[in-house]
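Any chance you could type out a protein's amino acid sequence plus the matching backbone structure tokens because I've never seen that pairing?

——
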Amino acid sequence: MTDKNTGMLHGLKVVEMSHIMAAPTCGQMLADMGADVIKVERVPGGDDTRRFGEGEQGDSAAFAMMNRNKRGLAVNTKSDEGRAALRRVIGQADVFIENYRKGAMEHFGIGWEEMHAANPRLIYCSVSGFGRTGPYAERGGFDLITQAMSGIMSITGEGPGRPPVKVGAPITDITAGILSAVGILGALAHRYETGEGQYVDSSLYEAGIVHTFWQTAIYHATGEIPQPMGSAHPLSAPYQAFPTKDTSLVVGAANQNNWLKFVEAIGAPELADDPRFETSNRRMENLQVLEETLNGILAGDTTAAWLEKLEAAGVPAGPVYDVKEMSDDPHTAARGMIEHVPAATGGEHAVIAHPVKYSATPATVRRGAPLMGEHSREVLAEFGFSAQEIDGLIASGAIVEPDVTAKAAE
């Protein structure tokens, strides 16, 4: 961790009024790249993620994961003074990100039309369950719901006829946040050329649909509705997990070159001449028989032993890790994917680092997640509020500092 901000977005002012995961993920991506991201939380309570698991004064590991590199501003949006202060801050920002239900921002007086009129350069990003248009625009959005409705749960699981299965990670939340960051960066490029801000509208539903590339292609090309296939691939084989003597092994030997190397490496060269398996299409047609054949062979030795042979042969393969094994893997360390940041209340939290490496402007983890309102006073001062104004806002409860927040939570 470093205190130095050398990121490519250094100097960009981002106000993120968010909770849970999608918008916080978006803000974190920008913060890692150097943007000054101000996390706005409504009082009382703030972001529900603060209460996921254990954490003193809302300083939870879950909150720390998505809110490092940000400063905290706590606002009482029921207060006229609080809403006015928030409008004033957003009006001076480069980017505003929010993920509340449709109409909430307008209710607070900080909707797109109002803020665009106040600051035509503002890039205003809404991340919601279903987007701001269409018949479902009024619905709230949760990862579980959008995984189901985007088709993901229909193609996830052990096989046809089995109960629907949600992907273990909240992929529509996380992907919506990443796609929103991409949209903001595109809008910034447009603004650099024209000076114009714009509205960026992304959703968990669309983020889920994005993950069905192969299955949607299959359906529209053939009319066949894809079904769950366990760990197998819908278009090529073998490309899936197989049980070994001790754990499980994933093999990516789908193209013909890798297939031929694979059967040699596992001591079954006769499979290359088997007419049922001679091409990728034939292997897909006979996938069940192929699985049974390979299961019988690979169950005869350990995952480590097979990996040694497959790696020597140049066949793509890997173990099935749990999160501890992933975290402890030397490649994870070499890529710097787990960092430790100071917890606001003492100790430290482990966080996943920025997943993109830049040669000239590296992303950095510069600070841990803030307590609610930890930087309220400093942020307002930077946005032109006088010391007297700040004292008045805090005294009235329109703006909150951590000590007040902590007492209110007791």
Q: What stands out?
A: The chain has a mean pLDDT of 95. Residues 69 and 367 are 5 Å apart (CA to CA). The longest strand covers residues 36-42. The chain has two domains: 13-210+330-409, 239-243+248-319.
